[in-house]
Specification:
- The structure is a single chain.
- The chain is mainly α.
- The protein has 9 helices and 4 strands, in the order αββαααββααααα.
- The strands form 2 sheets. Strands 1-2 form a two-stranded antiparallel ribbon. The protein has a two-stranded antiparallel sheet with strand order 3-4.
Length: 262
């Protein structure tokens, strides 16, 4: 009776498993999932753009797409507080949201996660690999700084963190302002550390929540294979959607803070 309600399930490992190698480069199951999600996003964009071009009169599909886009833009606009910034960053944030929504949820499809090659799991949720979440978070913060430089200048951007000029101006005004400018210089250096901390906190938050959900589902499937895991699968799906929105919201707030006009 026990074997009827259970099935063998290996616990999800923190490190992704290499499925095969191309030369000296190991292709892991999380990389396979990332490639599949990227391919699905490209297909979705091509299909949506083609469908919208063919429609001479706006139909239900176009209304749905426009509603989703306007809702997402309103969401980002509420975070940034500046419609100019929203219009500038929305293509990037919108693409990020679509990618994360698929990456966090598409492996809920029954049977997809059980596909194997040479005894190894082919697909593993991309965001359960810390390397992937750290890469995404770092890329987003690099874009934040690139947009900031494009808004102003490279020297002005460097001056936000390395405030040597302020030290010179401070000592010209007197000893007191000079000492305060040195403190301000150290605060600028701490801001550099905080930028690295942002990347780490973003990636850990997404990785921790998605990995915990997948691990919990794996444990419950190992105990009961019928009915009981369903609520946990639904919870994992809901958590994936929420974490994608949270990641997009935090990234939007970083853009809003960096690009907000003085």
């Amino acid at each position: 009776m026990g074997s009827f309600f259970q099935y063998e399930s290996e616990l999800l490992q923190v490190q992704s498993e290499a499925v095969f190698s191309i030369g000296e480069i190991a292709v892991t199951n999380s990389m396979m999932s990332a490639l599949l999600v990227t391919f699905l996003v490209i297909l979705l964009c091509i299909w949506a753009s083609t469908s919208l071009k063919k429609a001479a009169v706006p139909g239900k599909f176009q209304l749905v797409v426009e509603t989703l886009v306007m809702t997402a833009m309103g969401f980002v606009d509420n975070i940034t507080g500046d419609s100019r910034v929203t219009r500038k960053i929305f293509p990037l944030i919108g693409g990020l949201l679509i990618y994360l929504l698929l990456a966090n949820t598409f492996l809920v499809i029954p049977g997809l996660s059980s596909l194997q090659y040479d005894g190894k799991q082919i697909f593993r949720p991309t965001t359960t690999d810390f390397n992937a979440t750290f890469g995404i978070a770092t890329a987003m913060l690099i874009f934040v700084h690139l947009f900031t430089i494009m808004e102003g200048s490279l020297l002005g951007f460097i001056g936000k963190y390395i405030r040597v000029g302020e030290v010179v101006k401070g000592f010209r005004q007197g000893i007191g302002p000079g000492i305060m400018s040195i403190i301000d210089l150290f605060i600028g250096l701490l801001d550099i550390i905080s930028e690295f901390a942002k990347s780490l906190s973003l990636s850990l938050r997404l990785f921790g929540n998605i990995f915990a959900g997948e691990l919990l589902s794996s444990v419950m499937m190992g105990i009961f294979a019928i009915f009981l895991p369903i609520p946990f699968l639904v919870l994992s799906l809901f958590s994936g959607v929420v974490q994608a929105i949270v990641f997009g919201a935090l990234t939007s707030s970083y853009f809003g803070i960096a690009l907000k006009e003085e």
